[in-house]
Automatic annotation (TrEMBL):
SUPFAM superfamilies on file: Bet v1-like
Family: Belongs to the AHA1 family.
Organism for this UniProt entry: Paenibacillus phytorum
Stated name of the protein: SRPBCC domain-containing protein
Top-level taxon of the source organism: Bacteria
InterPro entries cross-referenced by the UniProt entry: ASHA1/2-like_C (IPR013538), START-like_dom_sf (IPR023393)
Signal sequence coordinates: none
Residue ranges occupied by any Activator of Hsp90 ATPase homologue 1/2-like C-terminal domain in the UniProt entry: 21-165
Length: 169
């Protein structure tokens, strides 16, 4: 199995899988600590200008991605705020959270779809298989984020994660 992402839509759920050439504990840590997230979260040409992580059930991750790539035209300089509220955390195995579009104060953006995400970290032949299941309120809500380029954005984000993992091992 290559390290490329496998993507599947099932009704109102987006299922993504990818194998990372890194130990499960390290991949989990990359999702749970601001110092790691700052290095890889977001598509290419974007950087995290804000990254506040309270990694515990009931805790919140509030962040801002900013486009710093002039070649991205109208997106250059654009800020995209997000907020995750953690439901359940099983060390090195699973993170369950609700992901929202938000503003700089952490208020959820009305009219934008949220998703209930379960991320599972699986030992796989000395590597880590990451399985992300994002459930949306409706197939239409999922269609909305897919049309915004969600799949390409996650592909680039996970490419950056792989690069980050390789740089710290």
């Amino acid at each position: 199995m290559s390290n490329k992402m496998i993507s599947k839509v099932d009704g109102q759920e987006l299922i993504l899988e990818r194998v990372f050439n890194a130990p499960r504990e390290l991949v989990f840590k990359a999702f749970s600590e601001a110092e790691h997230l700052k290095h890889w979260w977001g598509p290419r040409g974007w950087t995290l200008t804000v990254c506040n992580v309270d990694f515990r059930p009931g805790g919140i991750w509030h962040y801002c991605m900013k486009c710093i790539d002039q070649n991205q035209g109208d997106f250059y300089g654009y800020e995209s705020w997000g907020k995750a509220v953690y439901d359940e955390i099983v060390e090195a195995e699973k993170i369950i959270y609700v992901d929202y579009f938000s503003d700089a104060e952490g208020n959820e953006t009305e009219g934008m779809p949220s998703s209930h995400i379960t991320m599972t970290f699986v030992e796989f032949e000395g590597k880590t298989k990451l399985v992300s299941r994002s459930k949306y309120a409706s197939p239409e809500a999922l269609k909305t984020v897919m049309e915004m380029g969600m799949e390409q954005g996650i592909t680039e984000t996970w490419d950056r994660l792989e690069e980050h993992l390789q740089s710290i091992q």
